[in-house]
Amino acid sequence: MIESKLYNYVEIASFQEAKNNNAWCGDAFFCIETDEYFICAISDGLGSGQLAHNASQLVISYIRENHHEPLVFLMDRCNELLLNKRGVVLSIVKVDFINKEIIYSNTGNINCIFYTTNGILTRTIPKRGFLCGRKSSFTTQCIPYDKGMRFVLFTDGIELPTSLHDVIAKEVPVSRVIDFVKERATLKEDDITFLVGDILD
Fold this sequence. Notes:
This is PPM-type phosphatase domain-containing protein. This protein is an alpha+beta fold and 201 residues long. It contains four helices and 13 strands. It has helices spanning 50-66, 71-81, 164-170, 174-184; strands at residues 2-6, 10-17, 27-33, 37-45, 88-96, 101-107, 111-115, 121-123, 141-144, 150-154, 158-159, 186-187, 192-199. The strands form three sheets. The protein has a six-stranded antiparallel beta sheet with strand order 1-2-13-10-7-8, covered by helices on one side. A hairpin with a 3-residue loop joins β1 and β2. α1 (50-66) packs antiparallel against α2. The protein starts with a strand and ends with a strand. The model has no long low-confidence stretch (mean pLDDT 94).
């Protein structure tokens, strides 16, 4: 399923597919914008099917209700919620409009890449592991942003060839990026979520 949305300060486009057209997608994501920030979270339940779906939806539902909290708090609380449940990997990106910075926290193998308007590519540093209720510590990474910066987040159902980065960095609108990724990226036999966003101000 392909979706796009224009907020006041951010424009996004995304697509999501369940493994083998399963009724249950183990990936979930959520985006919201306020006057002060934009938040995007992507969760990927371990494995696939209904249990993976339920775990991903659990953490995304919590973030939806509590997105005003600091990112480390959200990561901690989502981890606690998954005790004795299927684990997930999770990435959260917050675009802070007041301080003009991007704050990022994650655990696991969800990819997050930023593209500046002058062609500089920045990959975030992933934290190994996954959320499952075991005690863990979480941190944030912060990077400044300028108007026009682009970001992508995607689960491990996609492999991006190096040749696609130039297209992702320059192609407009963001919906066209989705088209190129679907045509040219390697789509694995897995749940797939890919999201691209532009910071408009």
